[in-house]
Amino acid sequence: MYANYRTQPYLEAMCHLIEQYKPEVILMGATGMGRDLAGAVATRVGTGLTADCTGLDIDDKRNLMQTRPAFGGNIMATIMCDKYRPQMSTVRPHVMQMPEPLAGADGEIIKVDFSIPEEQVSVKILEVIRDGDSKQKIDIGGAEFIVSGGRGMMGPENFALLKELADELGAVVGASRSAVDAGWMPHDRQVGQTGKTVRPKIYIACGISGAIQHLVGMQDADLIIAINRDKEAPIFEVAHYGIVGDLFKVVPELTQNIRELKKQGCGARVK
Q1: Would the pTM count as exceeding 0.90?
Q2: N vs C: which end of the chain shows fewer Cβ within 10 Å?
């Protein structure tokens, strides 16, 4: 019954667990399935739900402090559900930093035997068809090195410059929402609030001004390098290194310098 996701069986199972164990907090991934299930569960149990959180904390009254972008991504709001339980949030993949393993820590997996009669489930899965292009698609959410372009790229043909740099670094090419909306890059390469949240080792932003909806999707990268001709661009506020200049000159020179370093035996990719 639970091999393939269907809202109704998962909803009944979650509500059964909530009734049995009375949790104070429920967290789900802000994936397609997680968003669907979390909304249904919150409605059934009569509690609040904060979606797409980028930060979580607990106050001294055991309230879950849920931080997420608001008003179109122009501000960051902290939301609390202090009158109802359980408190529910969905969190986007790669938003939280992976903690170091805690030596000696253990846990218990509790298996609960629960199901509903199959004839009560209105949705039947007849066949699962995989996307034929899925093997060719790149998940930028898990990439260690990303070179992204924004409106400053001026057109889709100029992303070839970023592809050359990315190839030298062993990176993938991403894009801001403005570049995706313009049709220069596919949506699966979009970084930001309405795209993918990333946490790479190196993030190079080329021609990206740094709107907050983009920043919340990449600001936790280990190292951020920004290239922009506008020295007042907000992207420089989160960048570890900033280059104020024409990206059409800076990027090719950077690519060439990396090639020369590799020829000198400095490594085949960034470490």
Answers
A1: no
A2: C
